[in-house]
Amino acid sequence: VSTQSTGSIFLRFLPHVTQSTTMRSLLPECSQCRVSSVLGNNSKQFGKQNLLDGSVETCWNSEPGSPQFILLGFKRPVQVKELRLMFQGGFVGQGCELYGKNATDQKLKLLCNFYPEDVNKLQVFSVETNDQVSQLKILFNKSTDFYGRITIYTLDVVGVCPNSEI
């Protein structure tokens, strides 16, 4: 640890640690992804890996039935500020909820409700919390699809990783 004086302001430098408040994608911090179901058990074509691959050419597609969910685990606590989703129109989640949990919590805590439009475009939902979480659950209580299927082409979680390494 070193300290440097610049006039009356003291800056403290900690090796390999930054207290960055710059918002960025938190998916590189993701260490776990689970989903409620995969259409026809066809993980190669419709599996959870398609949520994290950054391609709009691939998708996660759920089995019929409600509710459906996505569960994300992070390597270290993060502050979530935005949830970004691109659904297939006609297969959009309704009555959606975002839950978070840190390492000491026993139960997931509701962070926000969000209401996607039934369209094929990227939608951004603000998350108004300063809680640090190590796990997120995105819950789709219903679907615009008669059978309850959800199809997502793009998923991103944007926020701050308060104690990330340089």
Number of helices: 2
H and E order:
EEEEHHEEEEEEE
Mean pLDDT: 88
Q: Fraction of residues in helices?
A: under 10%
Specify the biggest β-sheet.
Answer: 9 strands, antiparallel
What radius of gyration results from the CA coordinates?
18 Å
Salient structural properties:
11 strands; mainly beta; single chain; 166 residues; 9-stranded antiparallel sheet; two-stranded antiparallel sheet
How would you portray this structure in words?
The chain has helices at 43-46, 49-52; strands spanning 2-6, 9-13, 24-25, 30-35, 60-61, 68-87, 93-101, 109-114, 122-126, 133-143, 151-160. By secondary structure, it is mainly beta. The strands form two sheets. Strands 3, 4, 5, 6, 7, 8, 9, 10 and 11 form a nine-stranded antiparallel beta sheet that branches. Strands 1-2 form a two-stranded antiparallel ribbon. A hairpin with a 2-residue loop joins strand 1 (2-6) and strand 2 (9-13). The protein is globular.
